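Subject: Sanity check before I submit

Could someone independently write out the structure tokens for this chain? I want to compare against mine line by line before I put it in a report. The sequence has 130 residues.
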Amino acid sequence: MSEIVFHTLAGFPKSMSPSSHASETDGFVFLTGQFARDLDNPDKELPIGIKSQTRQTLANMMRALDALGLGADRVLSVRVFLTHFKRDYDEMNEVYASFFPEGARPVRTCVGVTDLVRDALIEIDCIARR
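---
Independent answer below. Compare away.
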């Protein structure tokens, strides 16, 4: 069995939960859930609306992947959590589609949840491969 590496990313705010920013084994990288906080000013209020929050959340995910030496093209699986599924699903998808090129999109699960950290509308995690 391969070694497991737990990543704490330099220049990133501390995780909201008692967890690492990412963990890795056998070339698979598991990124912790991202939400729409400003990584450079984490106490700033979250943006308003699902489109803005989706854009910021995915930008945070891409920034974390980049810090690990990975890009969107290495993402295999994504999980999306929405607090207002029926209301926000279509608008979230509009923004989400712009981050992954057609024909190279990772598999995805999207579920409705009752609440997220800091009253976020969306949280996204992913699995990537080196």
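---
OP: Matches mine. For the report I'm noting this point. The mean pLDDT is 96.
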